Amino acid sequence: MREEYCRGRATKMESALRKVRIVLVEPEGPFNIGSVARVMKNMGFFELALVAPVEYKNDDGYCGAVGARDVLDNALVFPTVREAVSGQALVVGTTRRTGRHRRIYCSVEQLPEKVFPVLAGGSVAIVFGREQSGLKSSETDLCHLLVNIPSSAGFPSLNLSHAVAVVCYKLFTFSMVSEVPVIAKPATSDEIEGLLDYLQSVFADLGFFSKGSHRYVTTLFRRIFGRAMLDHEEIENLTHVFHRLHGLCKQSRAGK
Fold it and tell me: Which of 138, 220, 242, 249 is the 20 to 30 Å CA partner of 146?
């Protein structure tokens, strides 16, 4: 019985990890891209997405991939980060830098607890930035969560494949030993973006942005919604709430 349980759990784990998309933004070297494919397959991950990559299906790329040529050959290619994460229920950005618009909401040790509840009914994208400059602010704005990999202050920059290996290892080992709650029908990033577009139009109509840009508010709500792990029904309910609020505000203005 114990052996059957472990085998069933392993199958369930493998199925969950296949719904995690590893996104590399403008990766520079084919060997590094191949190395990422290799560490992904080591940990049971198979969906690799590349944003504006260099040519990678060559001797250097396959040399890095070794036995993970299938992961490399099946990599998805996108022109932008927005397109690479479209349709994902949770978008996680990895970053070393912090600031007003780059608040780190969890460490890599805490990441599995954010990811696995979503995987029962949705998919997750984990975005890794450029090797030299990381993710742009406009790209971290698209992320629901930002995660940090601790490293030495004297030499904090990790090789791309090493960073991917750390994240994949944490998710892989967590899936083997932990039971987590699930979200049956998590909202996709497209649904969240649709709600954000609607909120932006409501706030604009109310004059909320008359003295500044909508970027901060939009990013704030995106991060809040992402951490809340909303499901499809909650997206619909929130849309109804803000629609009702908008209507009441318009009535109030009309009555003055």
Answer: 242
